[in-house]
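Human: We require from you a standard protein entry with sequence in single-letter code and fold as tokens, and nothing else.

Assistant:
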Amino acid sequence: MALTLGRLDRGPHLPTLVASSITREIAQGRLKPGDQLPTEQSLAETFGVSRNVVREAIARLRVEGRVWSRQGRGAFVSATPQTNLLTIEHDDAQPEDVFAALFQFRGILEVQGAALAAQLRTPDDLDRIREAVEAMAAAPYGSILWLNGDLAFHHAIASATHNTYFVQVLAFVAEKVRESILSAGGQSHSENMAQATEREHRSILAAIEMQDEAAARNAMKDHLAGAASRIGTTIATEGMKSSL
């Protein structure tokens, strides 16, 4: 059966689009268990992307258990692909403002997650959240190091809930936001934005330190609304009032 791969339109994140296209070929039986994927060079030419994009897409498929690789031989479709891993496939029906959609979903979860972290955090949890805040403060605003610190901050808060579902879902969605920011060329940079962002993170940390659930919830809601505005979008905050 011939593959139906073709050149991609530029989207929010090219490795995601490449991985989604290959996943579709597997799901529809055009790539079968044991089949070898075309070479990185061939895929890059077919999709009209760089080999680095293809390499990242295949790495993602490998993590998801859809393919496996052998050094010097290439990538192969897994015999028993894992289907219980959390993934988000590219969807042409997705709203154009992917930032707003992602931030809205984060808000529904993370606002309550911050409150739960305030209730359940341990001294070790606080140390990890503080370390992430300080790492962000030491890095240039909007840089990869800063974004990695931001990801670590939200992951540390998710971990402080001591709920594995929060940890997996929130970390995954936060990483999707990071990918979207990077693929869009980052954020606008200004000293005022850097100060506002640090202030928001420290407010969340302070609320969690004091075990003030209401303050943590409000601080996270304010932060997500502010973060969305800094990348040029807005999100409704009314849906962020849910409780467990």
Q: What stands out?
A: The longest helix spans residues 98-120. Residues 98-240 form a domain with the Four Helix Bundle (Hemerythrin (Met), subunit A) fold (CATH 1.20.120.530). The beta strands are 67-70, 74-77.
